[in-house]
Amino acid sequence: MSTLTNRVLILNQDYTALSICSVERAFLLVFMQKAEMIADVKDKFLHTVSKAYPMPSIIKLHSYAKIPFKGVLLNKQNIFKRDSNKCQYCGSTSDLTIDHVLPSSRGGSSSWDNLTTACRSCNSKKGDFTPQEANMPLSQKPFKPSFLLFLRNFSGNVDPQWYPYLGKSKEKNSVLV
Questions:
Q1: Which residues of the chain have pLDDT under 50?
Q2: Within 10 A of 64 (CB to CB), how many other CB atoms are there?
Q3: Which region holds residue 136: left if phi is over 0, alpha if psi is between -120 and 50, else beta?
Q4: Which of 72, 97, 106, 123 has its CA 20 to 30 A from that of 30?
Q5: What is the pLDDT of residue 167?
Q6: Which positions ≥6 away from 171 have C-beta within 8 Å?
Q7: Residue 77: CB partners within 8 Å, gap ≥ 6?
Q8: DSSP secondary structure code for residue 86 in this structure
């Protein structure tokens, strides 16, 4: 596995979580002195012909980045991530689609609170009905994730060094309240 597939947490100047980026981008930000490395990946290095650099895990920007709105983009991939890539009706992980809980033909919107992951079979079976009408209960109610919640819970494996910046304790999947 390439070391460049690792991800790096970017912190704003005030140490708030801002984004996740590739190792290459993080290294360039540090190298160009636009950011400083807060934590590196133990025993992993980026090598040039003559030098080895620690691989970043967390970097902090030198200048404060004003972000007017930090939200999670509503798209198919993010709905799948929120729903753990499982059909919310039967739990299947194959042939996934997006389902409108309240069908769009009946006034249902394309929003976080009305879209859920469904396999093609369940989506066809449910048809133009609500889950209650089709007698197909959802395993979880659709919700709009916050930016921090999305970074913390839905962006794949999180480096334990990130926990203090994402509101997560050191125990796996234990969220601080």
A1: 1-4, 170-177
A2: 11
A3: beta
A4: 72
A5: 76
A6: none
A7: none
A8: S
Query: Position 140: which residue type?
Result: Q
Confidence (pLDDT) at 169? 52
Tokens of 32: 């160009």
Asked whether 56 and 8 are in contact (CB, 8 A), the reply is yes
Contacts of 102 (CB under 8 A, 6+ apart): 108, 109, 114, 130
Give the pair of three-digit tokens for residue 70.
């930090």
Distance CA 62, CA 15 (A): 10
pLDDT at 68: 74
- Determine phi and psi for 129, rounding to 5 degrees: -115, 165
CA distance 116 to 105: 16
Q: Give the tokens for residue 31.
A: 């190298």
Q: In sequence order, what are the beta bridge partners of 47?
A: 52
* C-beta of residue 168 within 8 angstroms of C-beta of residue 176: yes
Q: Quick one: which H or E segment has residue 119?
A: strand 115-119
The H or E element spanning position 31 is helix 23-31
